[in-house]
Design a protein that fits this description.
The chain is an alpha+beta fold. The chain has 2 domains: 109 residues, no CATH class; 74 residues. The protein has 5 helices and 3 strands, in the order H-E-E-E-H-H-H-H. The longest helix has 27 residues. It is elongated. The relative contact order is 0.09.
Length: 189
């Protein structure tokens, strides 16, 4: 079978070159940022090719169904899916995501940095609540511990976009009753 009758490899399809099979992602090269497929930036409003940083494709984690790695990091503007505000996903941040943290190369943020930070604070508060609430309600006789749990519940309520669960509301009521009882006992002494 001669080379012309063989099915085109991925390298031939994109670059007209000949690659050994199985190919390695290091064999790919996007000579220009504009050559990178648009699927790496779904829903993008605009790209700033002047900001392009060449990717070290040996460090980029591509999915099994990907036919080529992310070769460039480019400033990209999106609309936040939560608040609707336009934000820029900087090329330097992309480089950290994909080369240092090894995030899948097809990933991109759907939320602006502020909404992502708010979501992280909510998750942190929920984790703290889950770890500390049992101790604060059942074992602690410390007023400050119970007050800090109430503040944590208030933080969760402020950050969350949905009403608090029945369990959290019940725990807040229990903590309030315990604090009232503790403060009245302290006044009597």
């Amino acid at each position: 079978m001669n080379k012309k009758s063989t099915p085109k490899s991925i390298g031939e399809r994109y670059y007209g070159g000949e690659l050994e099979f199985p190919f390695r992602f290091e064999d790919f090269d996007c000579p220009r940022p504009k050559d990178m497929p648009s699927r790496f930036f779904p829903g993008v409003k605009r790209l700033d090719y002047r900001s392009a940083i060449k990717a070290d494709v040996s460090r980029v984690r591509a999915s099994a169904c990907s036919d080529m790695p992310r070769c460039w990091f480019i400033d990209a503007w999106f609309d936040c899916e939560k608040c609707g505000k336009e934000y820029c996903w900087k090329a330097k941040v992309q480089q950290i995501w994909f080369e240092r943290f090894q995030v899948w190369s097809e990933a991109y943020p759907k939320l602006c940095p502020e909404c992502r930070a708010k979501r992280r604070r909510l998750h942190k508060a929920l984790n703290s609540f889950g770890i500390e609430s049992k101790h604060a309600i059942l074992r602690s006789t410390d007023v400050k511990t119970k007050q800090s749990m109430l503040e944590l519940i208030d933080t969760i309520e402020h950050l969350s976009e949905v009403p608090l669960t029945k369990g959290i509301l019940e725990k807040r009521d229990i903590l309030k009753r315990q604090l009232e009882k503790m403060t009245t006992e302290n006044r009597k002494q």
